[in-house]
C-alpha cells in the first residue's frame, strides 16, 4: 500500500497534486511520501512485537536526511555500510548507539570513527577485519562490540547481483569457519561479542530461503552456547521483497511470523535490517516527455530522466511501473520504449509500455524510493535531481537540485 493515487485525472502524493510540485520544483525529481514510509516502518515493527527486536533500517536504500530523520523519530535504528552513512544518521538526528555497521571493506579510519561514536555493533565480515578492529579498539582503549557475519550458503533465488548468501559471494565468513572465528573473537581482549549476523540477499519474494537461513543459524547458536559463548542478538539482515510488477512477496507480518516460529531463542533480541521494504514504494520519480520518436519498427518516448537518475532498469533489467501524472487519455495509447537522454543503449526506464501521451507530458516511475536517488550519478555531466518529501497536504524540497557549476567546482586545469 502506498499514498500515490489518482484523484479524478490527476496523480497525487498523499494530499498534494504532483502537478503543483512540478510547477515549483521542475522535472525530473524524486517525490517521497512520509505517510507511506511511516506505515511501512510501523507495520514491520509491529510484526515483531512478540520478541525483543530492533528495526535497523538499511540506510543504503535511501539515505536522504529527511527520510532518516523521519525513521529515527519513529524509533528506528540503522544499518550503515560506510562512515558517510553513519555521519548521515548522526546529521539526521539518529542515535549512533542504535547503529550496526556492515560491509566487507571497512577502512581503519571508518572503524575508529564508529568506535568513537559508540555504535551498537560491527558486523564483521572477515578474520582480517576482526584483527583490524581489535587493534584499533586496543589503541583507543575500548572494547569493540561485534557480531560475525556468517554466510549461510543459501540460494536466495533473486537477481545474481543482489544475492549475497551463496558460498561464492564476497560477503561474510564461511559457515564452516564460524565456530573457530567465534573462538578467536572470544579470545581478543578488546572485542566484545554481541551477536550473530547474516543477510542473504535482496528482493526475496519467498519465505523458504529466510527459513532455511535461520535454521542454519539456530544450529550455530546452539554450538556457541555449548562453548560458553552467549549472544545478545541475532541479526537476520534485510532482503524482504516488494511488489514492482506481479511479484507476490510475503507481507511483513507473514515474514515475521515465519521468522518467530523458527527462532527458538525467545530472549535473543532480533535485529532486522529492511531497506527496500520500507522505502521502495514510498517514492516515485517524476520525468517529462521531451520527444516522441515513432517509426514503423519502434516507438521511443524520450524523457528527461535517465540511467544516471534511476539505474535499476539499466543495471538489473528491473521493471518499474510508469504512469502518467495526468490521465486524460486524449491520445491514442501506443507501445513505447521509455528512454533517457544518456548516450548509452542501456539507458532506458521501461520497455514496451502502453502509454497515451504527448510531448511535454509528465510521467511517474513508481517504486523508486529505494535504490533510486542513492544510485544516481553525474554521468554525462548531468546534475543530480531534486528530492521532495510530501506530508499530508504539504511538501518540502529535502534535497536541492544540483547546479551544473557544482559538478566541476572541485576540478582544476593543469
Ligand atoms: C542491502 C542490505 C540490507 C537491505 O536490503 P534490502 O533488500 O533493501 O532490505 C540489509 N543488510 C545488509 C547487510 C545489506 O547489505
TrEMBL record:
Substrates-to-products reaction catalysed: meso-2,6-diaminopimelate + H(+) = L-lysine + CO2
Does the record bear Amino-acid biosynthesis in its keywords? yes
- What is the E.C. number? 4.1.1.20
Q: Which cofactor does it need?
A: pyridoxal 5'-phosphate
**Which residue positions does N6-(pyridoxal phosphate)lysine occur at?**
60
Query: Which residues participate in substrate binding?
Result: 276, 312, 316, 344, 371
Which residues belong to any copy of the Orn/DAP/Arg decarboxylase 2 N-terminal domain? 36-280
Q: Which InterPro entries match?
A: Ala_racemase/Decarboxylase_C, DAP_deCOOHase_LysA, De-COase2_C, De-COase2_CS, De-COase2_N, De-COase2_pyr-phos_BS, Orn/DAP/Arg_de-COase, PLP-binding_barrel
Pathway assignment:
Amino-acid biosynthesis; L-lysine biosynthesis via DAP pathway; L-lysine from DL-2,6-diaminopimelate: step 1/1
Which keywords appear in this protein's UniProt record, sorted alphabetically? Amino-acid biosynthesis, Decarboxylase, Lyase, Lysine biosynthesis, Pyridoxal phosphate
Sorted alphabetically, the Gene Ontology BP terms of this entry are: lysine biosynthetic process via diaminopimelate
**GO MF annotations in UniProt:** diaminopimelate decarboxylase activity; pyridoxal phosphate binding
Q: For pyridoxal 5'-phosphate, which residues are the binding ones? A: 239, 273-276, 371
Which part of the chain is the Orn/DAP/Arg decarboxylase 2 C-terminal domain? 29-369
The active site is formed by 343 (proton donor)
- What is the protein's quaternary organization? Homodimer.
Function of the protein:
Specifically catalyzes the decarboxylation of meso-diaminopimelate (meso-DAP) to L-lysine.
Q: Which PANTHER family match?
A: DIAMINOPIMELATE DECARBOXYLASE (PTHR43727), GROUP IV DECARBOXYLASE (PTHR43727:SF2)
Q: Which family does it belong to?
A: Belongs to the Orn/Lys/Arg decarboxylase class-II family. LysA subfamily.
Protein name, entry field: Diaminopimelate decarboxylase
Q: Which organism is it from?
A: Candidatus Berkiella cookevillensis
Annotated gene = lysA
